[in-house]
Specification:
The chain is α/β, with parallel strands linked by helices. It contains four helices and 15 strands. The protein has a single domain, classed as 4-Layer Sandwich (Metallo-beta-lactamase, Chain A). It has a seven-stranded mixed β-sheet with strand order 1-2-3-4-5-6-7, with helices on one face. Helix 1 runs parallel beside helix 2. The protein is globular. The two termini are 32 Å apart.
Length: 213
């Protein structure tokens, strides 16, 4: 596990988990002893271990590709926490979503603010969660480029989301993705400049890397 401790709040990265090496994140307000879990991939028992002795009040989903909610039954059953998800997501039964998320919405974990940023592209309802200087990005943004896109329209939507919604954040904003290691907004923005300087085929999609695609 990897821990980012800001004093008033703490974020624990739990992962890699399951066959797709997912990351889950635990947002902790130590003073309130309150927790929000972000994503619930396989090996959910490891997520529960990271929350031991604390009160889980929210489970937040970045999107509903199955690898991000594989442990739904385990975590929902163990915590009874409400599950939050953007209503544009369709890959999980609607009755499993307790609270719809909206762009710009501010949630709280104890006294810690969590801002919702809608970033469609990877999926229609993909969201990122901004906590202080940390961006929990799901599969929207990774070191080196955007998340996988199935169509050219999806890639263009991802690019708009990243450029217009995420690259406006400060350079030192630390990106915590749904798989793998982190990066910063500043580093990612610099990589994107190389991508934007070159022509690309109109049908470009799939796994795109800013500096080499």
């Amino acid at each position: 596990m990897e821990t980012h401790d800001e004093g008033s709040f703490r974020i624990i990265k739990v992962g890699p988990l399951g066959p797709f090496d997912n990351n889950a994140y635990v947002i902790i307000d130590p003073a309130a002893r309150e927790v929000a879990i972000v994503d619930m991939p396989a090996e959910g028992e490891k997520i529960l271990e990271a929350t031991a002795g604390l009160r889980v009040t929210k489970i937040l989903l970045t999107h509903t590709h199955p690898d991000h909610w594989f442990s739904y039954d385990l975590l929902k059953g163990a915590t009874a926490a409400s599950v939050y998800c953007h209503p544009a997501e369709v890959q999980m039964p609607a009755e499993r979503i307790d609270v719809p998320l909206a762009d710009g919405q501010e949630l709280t974990v104890g006294n810690t603010a969590v801002r919702v940023i809608h970033t469609p592209g990877h999926t229609p309802g993909s969201v990122c969660f901004l906590v202080g200087r940390y961006l929990i990005a799901g599969d929207t943004l990774f070191p080196g480029g955007p998340g996988h896109s199935d169509t050219a329209d999806d890639l263009q939507q991802s690019i708009r989301s990243i450029v217009q919604r995420l690259y406006v954040l400060p350079d030192d904003t630390f990106v915590l993705p749904g798989h793998g290691d982190g990066t910063t907004i500043g580093a990612s923005r610099r990589e994107y400049v190389a991508f934007a300087s070159r022509p690309h085929p109109p049908d470009l999609c799939g796994d795109v890397l800013w500096e080499t695609t």
